[in-house]
Amino acid sequence: MHPWPHTYRLPRDRRGNPRGGGWSREALALWPLRADRRGLETPIIARDCRSEFGTPPGGSNWNVDHPMAVNLRLRDGRWHNVMVTRILEYGEIVRQLGPAPQSGAYLEEVHSSGKPVPAWRFAD
């Protein structure tokens, strides 16, 4: 997470305290379940926009958000985990900058070294 550049003012409450923390979401982490399913393992960085894309062209920050994932049983009969995220430059939201070349929806398959565990078990 990187601090907002000074050109993008941080919203403040009546006492002058920052609202929203003043940080953007430039990285996306996956939080694997422990084997006993009673807690979380160390997070895995799935996407680090600043290291992948560099500094945003408009001078603000990257925003990777709205992650959604689902386990799907595809035609091959195997389970696959598919994740969708939105990536854009924060200036596109607050300053109406045009979209950066990297902006858009990203659809990716998440691979695991463990055995797939479906949310439901269907009869074959």
Q: Please, could you describe this protein's structure?
A:
It is a single chain. The protein has one domain. The strands form 2 sheets. Strands 3-4-5 form a 3-stranded antiparallel sheet. 8% of the residues lie in helices and 31% in strands. A hairpin with a 5-residue loop joins strand 3 (62-73) and strand 4. The protein has 124 residues and is mainly beta. The N and C termini lie far apart (45 Å).
* DSSP, total strands: 5
Rg from Cα: 18 Å
Unreliable spans = none
Strand order of the largest sheet: 3-4-5
Mean pLDDT: 83
Shape summary: elongated
Biggest sheet character: 3 strands, antiparallel
Number of domains: 1
Q: What gap, in angstroms, lies between the N and C termini?
A: 45 Å
SSE series: EEHEEHE
